[in-house]
Amino acid sequence: MTKFDEATQAIRVDENTYDVCLDPGYSIGGPLNGGYLMAVILRAAVDASPFDHPVSTTAQFHRAPVPGPAQVRVEPLKAGRTAAFARVTLVQDGVPQIEGLVTTATLHDVEPIYADKAAYEMPPVERCVKLPDPKPESGMTLNAQMELLFDPPTIGWLKGESTGRPESRAYFRMTEPQDPDPYVLALAVDALPPVVFSAGGRGWAPTVDLTWHLRALPAPGRLTLLGSGRLVADGWFDEEVEVRDSTGRLVAQSRQLARVGRG
């Protein structure tokens, strides 16, 4: 079991309830990363399902859970021959924090009938760069859990050289050696800095609603994350992320609605 597996494990209490312990290692300056929290609830959803994989997840983030004990409640809605549906709630101190709808199924390693090319061709890994290490007092512990190597133009905002477009692109892998799986993908779809940073935004940009789809089981190796947005207006922005595995295959895609950062 890797550190990430341990940090996302869900222990079954009864037919519909799981105990979890939210790990402080996945903090972004205080709040816990939304992708990490989705991985936690998906552990419970898949364990309670007759199928193996979380193929579609929609999560609404009502509050920002804090590190420590919590529970995941799974309410089965319907199960058929190829898919099952459930409502999943992360509860902390008796208060619902995240509400999710999860569809599970079992994916197979088959050749696609059609597969498009990546939306953007990344430069070679050796031409990509890391963000500076955060100061210990920042509470940005998430950075230590994963390695992100960025397409340089998309982090120009660090030096006041934003592209003016909502975008973020990077190669991704866990710091601790681990082949990507559906739970790592849940983290990956929310691992990039908010795309609004490249459009001039700053500060914590809380996710309100995030939907992602598992399209295929990833091959071992680095993932490629391609993030973009279409509209930044009235304090809101959208973010879409395309995830490709080391073979270039599309393995996950997501869309979220978030608030433009303050401060």
From TrEMBL:
Gene3D superfamilies, sorted: Acyl-CoA thioesterase, double hotdog domain
Residues in Acyl-CoA thioesterase-like C-terminal domain copies: 126-260
InterPro entries, A to Z: ACOT8-like_C, Acyl-CoA_hotdog, HotDog_dom_sf, Sec_Metab_Biosynth-Assoc, TesB_ACOT8-like_N
Full protein name: Thioesterase-like superfamily protein
Domain Acyl-CoA thioesterase-like N-terminal HotDog: 25-104
